[in-house]
Every structure is written in C-alpha cells, then in structure tokens.
Amino acid sequence: MKTKTIARKPVRTGKGSSAVRAARPAKPASRAQANGKAKIQARVVAKPVSKAAKVAARSAAVPIDADLPIIYVNGQMLPKSKAMISVYDHGLLYGDGVFEGIRVYQGKIFKCKQHMDRLYHCADQIRLKIPVTRERMVQIQRECIEANKLNDGYIRLVVTRGFGTLGLDPRRCPTAGVICILDQIRLFPKEAYEAGMRVIVARRPKTPIACLDPRIKSLNYLNNILAKCEAIDFGCDEVIMLNLDGEVTEGSGDNIFIVKDGRLYTPPADAGILEGVTRGFVMRELAPALGYSCTERTLRLEDVLTADEVFLTGTAAEIIGVTQIDQHDGNGKITRSTRISDSEGPITRALRLRFREIATSNSVPEE
Known about the structure:
CATH class of the largest domain: Alpha Beta
Strand content: 15-25%
C-alpha cells in the first residue's frame, strides 16, 4: 500500500512567511524566564518518590563497591570499576589460560608455594609462558593484600594467553596477561557446614584426561559449569561427577572424600580430578594429625552411597559434609535418594574444626 505524504502550508501572520522567520535564530530567553520555565516544568513532572526508590537512588549515588577491591591488571593496581582487559584477550575469547583460587588467612597466603607450583606447572602444560617470576607473582599477591587491607579473603590469580587476534593461534598473543583479585567468597550457606548438604549425581561425565586433563586448572570450566547447572535444576549447590567408566571423580569445584569404618578414601588423580591443595592438606597433614589414615582409591558410586560419611574439600569451600545424594533421569525426575547421615559426620566435623583452628591461628602455613 502506498503512503501519501501531506505537506503542511506555511502559516502567515502578516510579516513574511513562517519559513523565513524559522530560519532566523530565536532570541535567548532571559535568566528569569528560564528559571521560571524550569520551575513550572519541575512542578509538572514531579511525582511522589517511594522510600525504596530513595534508598536505591542513594545507593546509586554512592557506589560503595565500585572502586573496591583494588585489582592488579597487567602491571597496574586499578579500582574495580576500571579493572579491565582487552576484548581481544584469548582468555576471554577462548578460555585460553590458567588460574588459581587461593585463601588468605590472618594476612598469610595459605599454602602459597603449592599454589605457585601448580600455577606454573599448568601454564607449562598448555604452553603458556608466564611473564613474571614466581617471586614476583607472590609479591603481587602481597601488594593486593596490603592495598585492600584484607587479612582474610580469597585470591583469584589469572594468567591469560593475552591480547591477540580473532584466530586461535597462540603465536599471535605476544605477552600473557596477569590479573590478581583479592575479594571475599562464599560458595555455600553458613548453616550447611554443620547441617551438611544435599548434592546430585551429574549425568554429564567428566572431561576425559586424553581430551583435556582435569589436573590442568584452565580457564575453560564449561564441563563443570554444565554439571553444576544440573544441581541448580534440582535445588542443589553441588554435584558428584563420574568419568566415562562410571568412576567417581569430584564435584564441580571440590574434591570428594568418603569415610568408611574410620578410614578416609578419595579418588586418585588418574580418575580425572584436579589435585586440590586443600585435598592434599587433608590427606597428608590434617587427617594424620588427628589419627586418621587416608588412601587414594578408585571409587564407584555405590562406594559413596554406602559410606559412613561423605565430605567435599576445596579452597573456597574448605571442608563441608554431604548428607544426601540424589540421582536423576535427565528428564527432571529424581530416581533415587540416598541419605548418608542426618548431619555433618563426626570425623568430618573434627577435620573441619581443626582446619578452622589453623586458619584462624598465628601459624597459617604458606609452604
């Protein structure tokens, strides 16, 4: 259908056409006139403002978190609102890089040496050259602690492939990027540490070692994230992931332990797990100090379901008990629920409390 354009005739008022007058600049209004008009407009558009809206407006006007924490980005200490990397960084474009999650307790970097060992080893595994020495990397973390005045927190140390092109070729990224964030983190509700938590068995299998070794703490966590989505679908916060052979591996972001007849067991590295720093601390230091033995052993799901206790460990999670494990059919239906215990088990509790004692003491281990 055609559209007609209707031309308006110019309105004449006696002295020349309106078109001519429109081309002439209008006289500027006086300050009094401008103020008067502004007041009238303000009275016209003003509406009642709710209390909630006023609070929101004040919050927006004072961005409490906009500049905190102070973050290290490629040689600069920047406020949170300005801590940015290039959109051409391959860490963003392809998940190409490695990272560490590290706890700070009492101003000390918990198991700092082990975290640095793993970071540099993982970088070697993906042929990524970190542009700073280990000593400098530790110093960067301490500078973030000092800049943010945080004695207890969580460090996210990220090394990306760096700025490059829109192709995969890592040779186009001349220098790796380094980011250090010190902030707070809480994965699970505080009450879950005593009550224990419900988890679900993921139907999505763990990425096979031959494809991408889970021992490499890379920026590509999509396998873990999709497994966690299964937990979220059923109102859980965590999952148990199996490998292609049906063996138990780990959670989406934690290692798993079981307790059977007073002994601790955890899956071996070749099951397809990240060799967690907290996992190692529990195995080699915490459990023996409390008189418990710990063995790496291949675990089937039935071993976990029939355990006396089940718990998870991780830098962010620390130590948390599992009291119920559900299985589902992939179509939104729970097919089996197994109750492990009514609350945190006694051995889990002993390990957790001892861990917290160390974390709040003056002798936090950095080695």
